[in-house]
Each structure stands twice: as C-alpha cells, then as structure tokens.
Amino acid sequence: MSASAQSRRPRRRAYRVLAAAASLATVGALAAALPASAGAEHAGGGKGGEKRTVDVQLLSFNDFHGNLQPPAGSSGQVTEKQPDGSEKKIDAGGVEYLATSLRTARKGNPYSVTAAAGDLIGASPLLSGLFHDEPTVEAMNKLGLDVTSVGNHEFDEGAKELARMQNGGCHPKDGCFEKDKKDKKGKGKKFRGADYPYLAANVTDEKTGKPILKPYWVWKHKGVKVGFIGVTLEGTPDIVSADGVKGLKFHDEIETVNKYAKVLDKQGVKSIVTLIHEGGVPKSQTYNYDCDSPGAGDGISGPITDIAKGISPKVDALVTGHTHNAYVCTIPDPAGNPRMVTSASSFGKLYTDTTLTYDRRTKDIVRTSVKSANHVVSREQAKAPDMTSLIQRWDKLAAPVANKPVGYVSADIPGRGAGVPESPLGDLISDAQLAHAKSLDPKADLALMNPGGIRSDIVFKASGSEGDGVVTYGEAFTVQPFSNTVNLVDLTGAQLVTGLKQQVSGSNAASPKILQVSEGLTYTLDMTKTGADRVVADSIKLNGKAIDPAATYRVAMNSFLAGGGDGFAELGKGTKPIVGADDLKAFNDYLTANSSADKPIAPPKADRIKIVK
C-alpha cells in the first residue's frame, strides 16, 4: 500500500504534521506525554537520539463475512467468563461498533496497524451479499484496514471477482449498483475496490505458477517496518465450489510462509506477522479464558497448533481465523521461543489488540514483551456515524428485496448459533430441500445439508418493521447466501452409509462436520468411539426401516455437497442427477407454503440424530 494510503487516517496525519513542524525537543515532549501503554518509545541507544524500542499496536480481526449490521440471535453474542467463574452472554458486533472500537483503541498509539485474517466477504447477509460485497469492502476502507489475507470465502465467486474486489470496477453482469450524480449519461458509480492489499502467498495460477495476488506487504512508519505474509488454508478447494477455485493451486501453509519469511528477511524486514486463514478449537467458548493454562498453548487444539509449531522463528506472531473461535495463545515456535497466536471470533464481535515491541537496532520484535488480548465490540458504545450512513445508503437499495415477508415462525429457530451437532434450523432446511426435490421427482427419499452452509439463526423478534415472527427475504438470505442449487442424485445404501461416516473420518476426523438430515432419516452418533465408528451403521434407518446397502436411494443435497465438498467425496459419486432451483428459493418456498400468520412454523425438535457422549 502506498504511503498516502497509509496516512489516510486523521489521527496519523495529525501526528505527522506535528512531527514535521516541531523541533526534536518538542517531539520528545509529545512522545513523553503519550500513555506508557500506548505506543510508547523506550529508552536505549538509537540513531539521532531515537529511542531504541517502540511499541507497535497490531489491531486484528477475522471472518467478518459482510456483517455490516449487528448479527441476530446467538450469532451476535460472545460469552464472557466472570470473576466468580460464571458465564455471561454479551451482544456484540456490527460495523458501526467495530469502527468505533478500533478508532478508540488507536487513540494515543502513533504506531498502529490494522490487519485481518480472511473471510471478510462471502457468505454475507443480504445487505452486503446482494451487491457482491461491495458495501463491505467500502466499510473496510473507511474503518482503516491496512492489510488482510484471503480466506476460502474470498473465492466463492472465483479469482476474477476477487481481483475486482482488490482493483475495483463494476460487476461484469450486474453492473454498477449506485447512480453517479456527476455523470450526465446515467452511468453507474464505479466501485473503487479495496484500499488495502489482499495477500494470497499460497494461491498460484496453475499456468504461470505465480501468486494471483501479492504474497506479502510491508507496513512502514517512522523507520519502523513490519512485514505481513498472507495465506489461506491449503484445503480451500475442499470447501469451495469447483468453479470458485478453477485454474488455481493451493500450497502448504508452512512451506509458503517460511519461503516468504526468508524473502522478507533478505530485504531487511526482520519483524514479520503471518495472517493465516486457518485456526484452532479452544477448550472454552468464553473469549477471555486463559489459553495458556496449565501450560503454553494447552488451551487450544486443531490444525493451527501444528502449523504454528512448523512456521519459521523469523515470524513473530500469527493472526488466524476460519474456525470462528476466540483465543489468544502462546504456542512455541520451532526454536522453542514463545509466539503469540490469536483469533477474534467472527462477524466483528471481537477485535484483538497486540503490542509488538520493535527494536530499532535489530529491526526485530522483542518476543518476550509481546502482549495480546481480545476485546468485545460492545453495542453499548456510540455508533460510528460514517458507518451508519453507509448502511442506510445501501439499505435503501436493498429494502425492496430484503423486506418482503416469506414466512412465519412461532419462536427462535437456532441454526449457526445452536452449538449442537443437529440444529432445529438444519432440520428445517433439510425438510425444505426434500420438499423441493419431491417436486422434481416424487421418488426423492431424503435430504442432507452441510452445517457450514447455515450461516445464521431465524429469530422470532422483529429486526425491523415487519413484526415479530415474520421471516423476511433478507433474513432467509442471511441463513443461506451461497446460491447453491438443490441437486437430486442416486446413491446406493452403501454409499449413503459411507457418506455419513465421512462426517467423522478422513479430513473431518479432527473437526467433525455433522450433516443435517430431513425427517425420516435417523441414526446414532456415538462420540465415545473414534473415526468412522462413531456413526453406528446398523442404527441408520429411513422411515423406520434399516438402510439396505444394495438398494438405491434418491438423495437431495446442495450443489456444494453434490460436488464432494467438505470432505464428502462419496456424496460426489451420485448418478442420474437432476438440478433444481437454488437453495434459498427452496427454503423460501417451503416457508411460504407451510406457514402463515395464524399457523407459524414451530422449531423442529432436532431429535433425528441420537448423540451418545
């Protein structure tokens, strides 16, 4: 990013003007007046009277997913551990509050950089998703994001669309979304793209072998330099539609980071942060638990632990994401030195504030002095006026579509925020897909839904003027924003059983992905066992009858699963396919046909899968 882009914030610009105009003595007085904990410069032997060390503030977040408005229901809450050991739910998130939190945190910190670890866009609520996430990129520009890695959802619409997010320009099919008041010819307002770089060090073009975007970027301020390397998880092709990653190759995270750490080191950049869209699973769902108890990194497991242990000691900190979890952990690097690994939940509910003490003599981070903590993006603080204006502007364009009622519910129907293997909303979506499949082929037997495709909850309380219990198109879109189609295929009973076993084996062994199932399909999931044995094969029944391995079943699922996504390779082997409407239409049609103001849909019992713990 250019120096001019970095200095766009009034806070930084003011500091530079003061520094340029003042004498060294005056600058020293100003620095001395800053809070000791806020970007303080420390005594030592630097050139020209400079302090030897300076605190660099690294603010970070991840997995924003276009949540400009505060997320609804449990998706918009964080859990806080209280001093007495009890837990408290706190409403959090929304870009109006995230912007205020970050701007407040930057005060008094002349050396401050803001970074993200991917999935800022994609799987977004309607306000952003309807406009191909242009509103979110605009919001990130305004709140002062300096750099981000790509995540898997940055590839939902393919590499060309990701390049448009970076470089700007109107959508190739939908055109420009806003009118340009200065343009007398009636052309639309051109989308300017991201002011911040998207980093994709481990994503290369299959033909050229070169990264499709910048692999790294260096933040510079008053002689201080910090390099950022950005990568997404190597398994991105397994969780993104085939069209989204066509022509791309995804490389090992550790090998890639270590490669570019050497490149930065040779350039004289000794302070390095990795932004990696891969994460871990904490032992506690409270955001403020002690991840280093009883020992360093003992409070976290999952892919990021092995990755962190393999990344070069040249890297001083890891900002992570993907799992939507919150943690601040110290995981030793390969040399045995402590290194901070952080993640700030999702949807802008938290941000991480990390202090990196930079040594001007060595140009490196004093690793033992690194401090970090997650902070709640509380909705009790003031909203950022510029973000409120942004939301109102885009909401006006989205309103005719977003506010249309599509159904009625009698109570909250938990989905993303349910926190259990089988969710009531997962059952409802599966039933909706089976109903749509039966309209294509009356012989359709069952439907399966991937849990990652359920992005929110259905909330009884009105989000606007629609009234309690009313489900709007915008709310349904937030639940299912991917535009997958409902596909119908033939699978043998043996294939179906294998597919169910893949929920807890293979690539899903460490982090199971429990499929949501339509009414009539039942089985037992025994979590006391390991691997594929967790699915009790002889318990799998359809309408009370055991699955016949030799029989053929017509199975409905979205196009992502039908392509073998999420590690369900067996489901990708279906035959005699029929492609139906998109999954959102199937869901909306089901809500409309099966509910009314007088007879709303009640939350399904979520008792189709028996869980043994």
List key phrases describing it.
613 residues; 5'-nucleotidase,  domain 2; 2 domains; UDP-sugar diphosphatase activity; TAT_signal
Walk me through this protein's architecture.
With 613 residues, the protein is of the alpha/beta class. The protein folds into two domains: 58-376, Purple Acid Phosphatase, chain A, domain 2; 404-611, 5'-Nucleotidase, C-terminal domain (5'-nucleotidase,  domain 2, Alpha-Beta Complex), CATH 3.90.780. 25% of the residues lie in helices and 23% in strands. Strands 1, 2, 5, 6, 7, 18, 19 and 20 form an eight-stranded mixed sheet that branches. α7 links the parallel β6 and β7. The protein is globular and about 80 Å long. The model is unreliable at 1-39 (pLDDT under 50). This is 5'-nucleotidase. Its EC number is 3.1.3.5. Belongs to the 5'-nucleotidase family.
